[in-house]
Amino acid sequence: MSELGAIIVDPADIPNAGMYDQSEMDVLLYEFKADLDAYLGALGPASKAHSLADVIAFNESNKMLEMPFFGQELMLEAQKKGPLTDAAYRAAVVRNVTLSRKEGIDAVMDRLHLDALVAPSGSPAWTIDLVNGDHFLGSSTTPAAVAGYPSITVPAGYAVGLPVGISFIGRRWSEAQLIKYAYAFEQATKHRRAPTFAGTANVGVD
Q: pTM here?
């Protein structure tokens, strides 16, 4: 990126990253229930499910087929949540927006006079199995997701044969600039390879 003319400021850590994990999950559960209920409720009489509760009941009635390895814990937690008018939901949204925007991404970009934030998107791609499931290891894009700010991810290379991404994150309405940065990086590096759909990861361990 320096060779392409970028001025790199490092470190440029986002304040409060990781401080809204629980409130982020609360918002997700509230909105998952509300949005799924709205979608299923509009499907009409031909649908067998009209709410999250109906989906949970169907899964429970067919658990040997639908849940032979894992349960539906997140859906059960979401079902316990009330409407989006709940004070707890509104408080969580305010907390998340404050910590991730004004006191997070905006704060570090203002302080260091940045045009964008750049970071590895997360760990190398992970395997999914019947012991650990989808064992996601975290992501640098969480602050942007919580803030509702734009983020674009492109290939950055490989670690032990597993793809790694790099993310360009900006303030609200900065999509056009981020696309320019990401496109320039892609064209200069040509890191993308067509997926091979390998049966498992080859990490060099016998």
A: 0.86
